[in-house]
Design a protein that fits this description.
about 120 residues; 6 helices
């Protein structure tokens, strides 16, 4: 079982920029990103060519909500998802797609206060 996830360099850069702007840690931003991705009906691309970004362990990203994230992704997939598929593959696919959505939300809001306010509306 793989308990490590590596992001793309682009995702690492977005996480760094959002962290400096919002003061949220990369793991919290990653959770928000996955949540945004799960709102899109089409499945994200599962294969990641670039893994030169940040490295996270599973507990850092999912923490005490690991079963919740697995249940959400299982429900999203509409089939049983094995642990090896859930993390890192599916979780990372949603992270990679969702971080771009999160970045767009921040750009649209223009500042951290607007960003948080808009996220509460989603």
């Amino acid at each position: 079982m793989n308990f490590r996830l590596r992001t793309s360099a682009d995702t690492a850069e977005i996480l760094k920029n959002l962290q400096s702007s919002t003061k949220l840690t990369p793991n919290v931003l990653s959770r928000l990103a996955v949540s945004l991705s799960l709102k899109i009906p089409e499945a994200p691309s599962a294969k990641l060519a670039d893994t030169s970004g940040l490295e996270f362990n599973r507990n850092t990203l999912t923490g005490e909500f690991d079963y919740v994230y697995k249940a959400l992704i299982t429900q999203y997939m509409k089939r049983e998802v094995q642990d090896e598929e859930f993390f890192p593959d599916l979780f990372n696919a949603h992270l990679e797609r969702g971080i771009k959505l999160l970045e767009n939300e921040y750009r649209h809001a223009g500042n951290a206060d607007g960003f948080f306010h808009n996220l509460l509306k989603i």
